[in-house]
Amino acid sequence: MKQVVLITGGTMGIGLALAEAFLAKGDEVAVCGRSAAALESFTHLHPNALAVQADVTKPEDRATVLEKVTERFGRLDILINNAGTFVERDLAGEPDSTHELEQEVAVNLTAPIQLTAAALKRWPAMAAIVFVTSGFALVSPTRAPTYGAVKAGLHGFAEGLRRQLAPRGTHVLELLPPTVDTAMNAAYAGRKMPPAEVARVTLRALARRQPMALPGASRLLPMLLRIAPHTIKQMVANM
Fold first, then answer.
1. What's the whole-model pTM score?
2. Which residues are catalytic?
3. How far apart are CA 237 and CA 139, in angstroms?
4. How many alpha carbons fall within 13 Å on the CB side of residue 26?
């Protein structure tokens, strides 16, 4: 049976790879994003999908996205909270280290919570809700402590929501990707995972109803934090 999937930030990077993976298996897909050019490019490549211009930090845009999904498909089975931003902040050295902090928190933490709540109000028994966090949710990076903080917050929200929705049968999945080959990591010179591989691992985790999807090096992180916490924190925090 086809599922209806909504992916925030679905026109590039991990979000685009997820959209294409769901489309390849025959599901109905809706994406939203802020860039009109990226949405136009997505629609050109995938004319049967729904693409909505929206900033998920704005209540009226969140409502518009859900209304468009309702009009087109009549329901929503899987919500994927993927939209996010990575901001490096040096609170020890920058004179304005909290510039646009509210926007960073809104995109990475508040908006996913608000969109999830609004979607659950419309569709109380969705099949699955996915939150894209990061390995940095478990070990905060030295160069971006606020990013680590908001992703840790989303990790905690996913954990609690999973218990709340268990009686309804809604699967809550947290995706913790490693460093992925996306525009956000363009300046990073180390090893990067292809977005398509992240999408493959995510769909497998959904099918198996796992609590976490841990692509690549991320799969070792929870275990290493148990057996060698100091070493792994030193290594990951300075990535």
1. 0.90
2. 147
3. 6
4. 2
